[in-house]
């Protein structure tokens, strides 16, 4: 790479980083570089997820306002983009069930949230036990929400398509380079130190930094003095692949009302993927690092993470919380025991036979932010200063919301004169980013 000076550097090439790059290069002539530590973009959470374009009924319109807005807008944007590119977008709907009678009240609340978040009554139905049985005869439940406006996709394929568009529009990518340090200079520039896999150091100069480093985003933000009171905890979501004979067991993915509702984890679901194969998962096993897919990496992160947790006194109240500890115990148990994991779904899909599950799926890690009082932060956080923007706590439905959130961020940078608008978007009139911005900021 010849160039060492950029208008904008994006740190992290997951689905969010590449979507921001896509909208930046469609709407401006800024010289943009995306830095990704892996060989390929979207190698972590963005390809290690359930692959759903989530409907917004799970998100409280007040405490999870951004997630709710971007989930609503994400559906039509991914549908439009997939159709344009000939990428599979399977509009298959989803069923959320009440395992117990008392969960019906939660379904009603979800229904209301869905409508408040923009779903129309034709898209979302509240069904009783018998009505659910007619759609999914193999499911055992007390009632359900059937949402038709929900889809299955492969976010790795979508990310790669965005990458091609980004490169075609003049964006640049530096793979296999990790950002290790960022310093801000008096002349309003950021000096970014990067390192290759074999330890070679380089320096890049940028007028502005966008931090989309997923599980590392809090570390990058701290380099700007941002997010200092926060801490991140990492949870590995594991899956089991279902045998082929179960592919016709249901026509929809089936989610259930989580047992513990005070924490941001869903119970494992029955998942019908975009290509038709089925999986069970994810659970949420606490791990020490954002890439702790295996024992060795987990062990490597054990000491630094424990030290960090130890000094954050606010976190102790969470660690003393009996409900949280019981949740952790269950999740850890479901990591070690296939039986416990499958049982969580067998409860509502009794035809499953644990012995027939022999292959683990690809696990993904979510990094959740906790505030200084030990509370999970419910929504994504967009924090910034004059030289940088940081997208933190970007969890599910983050893949669903990547296009609308990116369009919003780029419009914000135009309003703030960080970049100048040059519309290369006009020829196919795909997106009106001013409308998307107002829709999210509403
Ligand atoms: C188990 C699981 C299931 C999920 N299912 C769904 C779903 O069905 N639907 C949905 O909408 N969402 C889902 N999500 C959430 C969704 O996958 C994430 O919100 C989304 O992928 C986050 O994208 P990202 O680009 O912010 O992060 P990432 O995909 O983690 O990308 C960040 C990138 O930054 C790079 N990076 C980090 N640090 C550095 C550095 N210092 N230098 C250079 N590069 C760096 C990393 O290598 C990585 O590629 C799920 C998440 C999990 C964990």
Structure description:
The protein is of the alpha+beta class. The chain has a domain at 1-90 and 152-229 and 378-442: FAD/NAD(P)-binding domain (3-Layer(bba) Sandwich). The chain has 12 helices and 21 strands. A hairpin with a 4-residue loop joins strand 10 (190-196) and strand 11 (201-211). The structure holds flavin-adenine dinucleotide. Flavin-adenine dinucleotide binds at residues 11-17, 35-38, 42-46, 49-52, 54, 178-179, 212-216, 237, 282, 364-366, 394-400.
- The CATH superfamily title of the domain at 1-90 and 152-229 and 378-442: FAD/NAD(P)-binding domain
Radius of gyration: 22 Å
List low-confidence stretches.
none
Assess the beta-strand content as a share of residues. Answer: 15-25%
User: How many beta-strand runs?
Assistant: 21
Q: Could you tell me how far the N terminus lies from the C terminus, measured between alpha carbons in angstroms?
A: 41 Å
Shape: globular
